[in-house]
């Protein structure tokens, strides 16, 4: 696949030049892996979902693991760095605790929502797959200078948050709230939700937790 950067996995995939069968297999795997898990999805199910034969799958991918990595690698190598740089560039245009937290909550949830299937797969594999976990932590290490030069760290240095709170503490508070809500929306569908009101509530909870 092309290494061009992208902002939405499915949109990017549909823009790539590749055989129709290969694209169908990847899109079906993305859907099934996100809903059923990697281990819970067979190549027979992928073939049926993609309306191709299992032989077509193995024509393009030697193993199911190769197919999984074909989904994961572009996410880590392309999507994540592009969104990281775009996010921190926009973040640094904001000032003050309320404004910064509001931007982070709404912008990052939009990112999670637009790439829900891909993120669900990535999150699951980070927890269970050593290769994917190592790739992800390499990305985190490569991102440290960007993060420490961001408005989030400046907010800590300027004491806009309570004393003793570090950048890691702040990031953990925000990320924890967003991922928990993302998982609730995607896996606990019986709970009634009002997305805008919920995100505003998350914003208020974060500010209450970190402000001086």
What are the main properties of this structure?
75% helix; 212 residues; mainly alpha; disordered N terminus; elongated
Could you characterize the architecture of this molecule?
- With 212 residues, this protein is mainly alpha-helical.
- Helices cover 75% and strands 0% of the residues.
- Helix 5 packs parallel to helix 8 (130-142).
Layout: helices, strands, pairs:
Blueprint: H1 9-15, H2 20-36, H3 43-50, H4 54-60, H5 64-91, H6 97-114, H7 116-128, H8 130-142, H9 144-148, H10 151-157, H11 167-187, H12 195-210
Helix pairs in contact: 2-3, 2-7, 5-8, 6-12, 7-8, 11-12
What's this model, at a glance?
By secondary structure, the protein is mostly helical.
Q: Which radius of gyration do the C-alpha atoms yield?
A: 19 Å
Q: What structural class do you assign from the helix and strand content?
A: mainly alpha
Distance between the termini: 49 Å
The residue fraction in helices comes out at over 70%
Total helical segments: 12
Q: Please, what is the average pLDDT?
A: 88
- Give a count of the beta strands, DSSP E runs of length 2 or more: 0
* Unreliable stretches covering 5 or more consecutive residues: 1-6
């Amino acid at each position: 696949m092309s290494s061009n950067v992208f902002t939405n996995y499915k949109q990017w995939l549909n823009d790539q030049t590749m055989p129709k069968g290969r694209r169908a297999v990847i899109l079906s795997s993305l859907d099934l892996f996100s809903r059923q898990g990697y281990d819970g999805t067979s190549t027979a199910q992928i073939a049926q979902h993609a309306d191709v034969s299992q032989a077509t799958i193995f024509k393009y991918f030697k193993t199911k693991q190769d197919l999984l990595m074909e989904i994961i690698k572009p996410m880590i190598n392309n999507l994540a760095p592009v969104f990281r740089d775009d996010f921190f560039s926009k973040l640094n245009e904001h000032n003050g605790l309320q404004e910064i937290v509001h931007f982070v909550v709404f912008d990052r949830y939009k990112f999670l929502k637009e790439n829900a299937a891909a993120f669900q797969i990535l999150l699951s594999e980070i927890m269970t797959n050593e290769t994917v976990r190592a790739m992800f932590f390499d990305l985190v290490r490569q991102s440290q200078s960007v993060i420490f030069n961001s408005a989030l760290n400046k907010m800590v240095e300027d004491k806009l948050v309570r004393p003793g709170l570090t950048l890691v503490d702040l990031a953990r508070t925000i990320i924890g709230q967003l991922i928990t809500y993302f998982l609730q929306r995607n896996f606990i569908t019986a709970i009634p939700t009002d997305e805008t009101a919920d995100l505003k509530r998350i914003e208020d909870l974060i500010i209450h937790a970190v402000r001086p």
